[in-house]
Design brief:
single chain; mainly beta; eight-stranded mixed β-sheet; three-stranded antiparallel β-sheet; about 5% helix
């Protein structure tokens, strides 16, 4: 499977030629703040297969409550689009922000993470595994 996408202004583009490990909705408050929305829809992929191009990629670091390590949130510094997150405690894994994909027609979240911080008006995804905190070890 080939995944590709870009930021809102087009200065950052990416491709990833790998099968996604999972598609998840994250309800954590940091993702809510980063996206400006109730959830962040992400696709977990092997980081080694993700190729990002463009010179406006910047990273803002937060510290994860569960793992206590850095969550590196990369975004386009020109338009603000979040592109990918990488968690130091989960080496080799990249979380592509699914709204930046060119083709989103196949997305079907199989995990809901940090459900304990979900907005009360967001219904659960039918058939998805629900976790009160992050990805279980």
């Amino acid at each position: 499977m080939k995944l590709d996408g870009h930021c809102l202004c087009g200065n950052i583009t990416y491709t990833c030629e790998t099968e996604p490990q999972f598609t998840a909705i994250c309800h954590c408050t940091n993702c809510q703040r980063q996206t400006g929305a109730a959830v962040s829809l992400v696709v977990g992929v092997d980081d080694i297969d993700l190729k990002i191009e463009g010179d406006s990629l910047k990273t803002f670091i937060t510290v994860g409550e569960d793992h206590g390590s850095n969550t590196n949130r990369s975004f386009c510094s020109d338009c603000g689009s979040p592109i990918v997150s990488r968690i130091d405690a989960m080496p080799g894994l990249a979380f592509i922000k699914a709204g930046t994909l060119n083709d989103t027609s196949w997305l079907n979240p199989t995990l809901e993470l940090w459900h304990r911080s979900a907005q009360s008006w967001v219904p659960p995804v039918p058939g998805a595994e629900v976790h009160p905190r992050g990805i279980p070890a």
